[in-house]
Amino acid sequence: MNRRRWLSLAAVAPLAAQAPKRDAMPRFQARSLDGQLHTRETLKGKVVLVQHWATWCGYCRKDEPAVEQILKDHAKDGLVVLAINAAESKATVQNYLKDHPRTAQVVLTPDTNLAQLFEGAGVPAYILIDRESNIAAMQPGSGGLMALRAMLKEAGLTKPDSK
């Protein structure tokens, strides 16, 4: 997915009068650092937030508490966060996680084909997959808690106290 696609989707989304037909998420596999294998098929029925991030990215660090908060708020609703690291070494990521533990399923670039979807998008970037394995929303860049909650609404998840 190139940057032009990311930008064009962002520009058109507010203009849509009806919910457009959602694109199916391509087949993928992602093995997290804890050894779990995630695929489109194993995650069907869950809402999946895919985050592209890096240890050196200040905006990614800024978004980490928001990602952790939505995961805490919606874990019982079937939300899964796959945090795809942007091509850093396993040692770098593991050292970072010692000081910045994450609840999200952290995945290294060699252990997934999801990183290809973020080509040209930079870090952080997000793709939200709905329960039917369709792309519900995308966001290039940091947006914080409110932006992530707005994305989750596209898959039917709302802030717990607003249900």
Provide an overview of this structure.
The protein is of the alpha/beta class. The chain has a single domain (3-9, 23-153), classed as Glutaredoxin. The protein is 31% helix and 25% strand. Strands 2-1-5-4-3-6-7 form a 7-stranded mixed sheet. Strand 6 and strand 7 form a beta hairpin. The radius of gyration is 15 Å and the shape is globular. The termini are far apart.
Topology overview:
Blueprint: H1 3-12, E1 29-32, E2 37-39, H2 40-43, E3 47-53, H3 58-74, E4 79-85, H4 90-99, E5 105-112, E6 125-129, E7 135-140, H5 144-153
Parallel strand pairs: 3-4, 4-5
Antiparallel strand pairs: 1-2, 1-5, 3-6, 6-7
Helix pairs in contact: 3-5
CATH superfamily: Glutaredoxin
What low-confidence regions span 5 or more consecutive residues with pLDDT below 50? 1-19
What is the C-level CATH assignment? Answer: Alpha Beta
Tell me the total number of β-strands: 7
Helix content: 25-40%
How much β-strand is present in the residues?
Answer: 15-25%
Write down the overall geometry: globular
Number of distinct helices: 5
Strand order of the largest sheet: 2-1-5-4-3-6-7
Q: What is the CATH-assigned architecture? A: 3-Layer(aba) Sandwich
CATH topology: Glutaredoxin
